[in-house]
Amino acid sequence: RLEQGACQHYLHIRPAPSDNLPLVDLIEHPDPIFDPKEKDLNETLLRNLMGGHFDPNFMAISLPEDRLGVDDLAELDLLLRQRPSGAMPSEIKGLEFYDGLQPGKKHRLSKKLRRKLQMWLWSQTFCPVLYTWNDLGSRFWPRYVKVGSCYSKRSCSVPEGMVCKPAKSVHLTILRWRCQRRGGQRCTWIPIQYPIISECKCSC
């Protein structure tokens, strides 16, 4: 599987799976002769080719109505106001927050106030993955894939200066319509690994 993924770049099918982020989109040949015909888009046959790789949470045959666009400011604001989930980062959990009321002496804050400051700092540095449906075009099946991005319009550090950037990616298995011209044009659906961002981190 690793060898198959590594050679995809040379076949001009899809960027090879790697830890190099951000992800780069493939430039498609504009000639419609390389598009699948209606007879090639039989959903039953394509689902059989996909096998157990079809994930309805990240794939769709038609554009979902409840899609979340990055430009939807109301939805985005709501998402960014949500409390971070999972375990608090150890570098924030370990902060003591001493006050400096008297020079030369350290006054430990109350446990409750310390927790509030930790939660505030965590919310300021939180980097959620924002998902939106992406139309890959007729040469991919399923045509619509939910891809991740990092919100970078505000700083995620205190003091400011750092922004949210892609940190990890995962790969979905989808079908790619591939045409070869050697010995006459022959086209077929082949499985490929499609990378999507799965984690964002606050970084320089």
Automatic annotation (TrEMBL):
Provide GO CC annotations from the record: extracellular space
What InterPro entries does the record point to?
A: Cystine-knot_cytokine (IPR029034), Noggin (IPR008717)
Q: Which example biological process does GO assign this protein? A: osteoblast differentiation
Keywords (alphabetical) are:
Chondrogenesis, Developmental protein, Differentiation, Disulfide bond, Glycoprotein, Secreted, Signal
Indicate where this protein resides in the cell.
Secreted
Q: Which residues are glycosylated?
A: N42
Q: Name one Pfam family in it.
A: Noggin
Which cysteines does the record link by disulfide bonds?
C127-C164, C150-C200, C156-C202, C179-C187
Superkingdom, natural source: Eukaryota
Q: Does the keyword Protein transport apply?
A: no
The text of the family note is: Belongs to the noggin family.
- Its name, as the record gives it, is NOGG protein
